[in-house]
Amino acid sequence: MKSPIPDYLNSVLENARPNDDGATASYIDVLAKAETNRLAVALAMVDGELYSAGDDEIEFSIQSISKAFVYAIAIEDAGLPAVLEKIGMEPSGDAFNRLSLQKGSNRPFNPMINAGAITAHSLVVAPNATVEQRTERILSTLSRLAGRQLHVDEEIFEAELKDANRNMGIGYMLKAAGIITCNPAEAVRGYIRQCSVNVTVRDLAMMASVLCNSGVHPVSGERIMPAESARQVLSVMATCGMYDGSGEWLATVGFSAKSGVSGAIMGALPGQVGIAAFSPKLDERGNSVRAVDICKQLSADMGLHLMNSSQVALSTVQTRVATILAGTKSTDPHPPNCDREVIVFSLRGAVRFAGSERLTRALERDLSGPHQEACAVVLSFRETYSLNEIARRVIHEDIRRLLADGRNVVAIDPSGILQWDIHATTKEHSPVMVETEAQARDQIGGAGCRAVTTSEGW
Ligand code: GLU
Known about the structure:
The structure is a single chain. The protein is α/β, with parallel strands linked by helices. A hairpin with a 3-residue loop joins strand 6 and strand 7. It is elongated and about 90 Å long. The site of glutamic acid has 11 residues, from loops. InterPro entries: Beta-lactam/transpept-like, Glutaminase, STAS_dom_sf.
């Protein structure tokens, strides 16, 4: 079978192509002359699969999208508290290059506007680092994120440096306010170098997928940033990433995103997919007209809005009941025709708090009501894709309480997802851990005694 996804991406591009509105960024002459019919899109799944269509090999400068990653690097190099002391987390509602600081703290509003981004840049490596050291650190991290060696586009760099008065003004304002301690001209020069790194949509989608995958590169498996940093970056992107259109973006498109004046948008849906779209003409806010169209289509067609309520929690627990068919040997724990039940709870999918709460509720309801007399409680994790930390804690507590009530608890956990350390507890404080349903039946029924049901496997 041929995957329908590339065909779908091509149709998304064709839908966006006729929109010829907007204009290229005029303040950097190389960008002003960009070929306006370029159009590309890419999706990177969190398992490393990459799809792309259109001009997906064409390079363009990363521009403001670098701000998201340099923020993560600043957090790593200076520590989150030091970064938060210097850079806020509030949307400014202003244009990206506004000379503005928060009242009282004098901090830039957030790391996605230039004042915050220049400050974040100044925190990379160390306050007294050189432009070369910071560029090297940033370029190597961006390259690891993209999965290939990236380069600074010297032509873009020179073009932007030629007319950097506004950014220089921001640099000197930050220095006067005591927010940056290094030479402001150097900080701005380094910031412009970080904006001049060339990427493709495939690079950007892959880089975004690292943010979506808690900081671990889906292809190399390398941890590039701590999970907390990835979450921090995605949060600030969600509220501040689309210039002064961020609020409307979150409500309508609904995934974290960062755009740049070269015409790219990088999007990220945590746990699912990294997204990139590119076309040079910009709207009045500085966001690519066609890339916005593409993101809107993707969000609507594929249900990528962060605020969509998940249906997963409703279908996580399946309950089955089996009846003990007693054996005939005198050693059997059950008398002939004992007729007692075994109740089996199977937990399915990627389980978070809501899923574990449903299991807890099912256990409480069934074991104090219709199946009070159940001879054993079987918890099956065979179809559990993942348990997050809180779900695991809730389920551990459920098991402890079942055991304290004197229940015979059997856990089918072939992959060890429950992380129940049988060596850390005594037998009375531990469920019987098995890998298959057949082993579970043996544990419950004893020799010659089987739990049977009409449902498959029991
Ligand atoms: N180099 C650009 C600037 O600072 C980046 C801006 C952007 O992409 O929004 O002016």
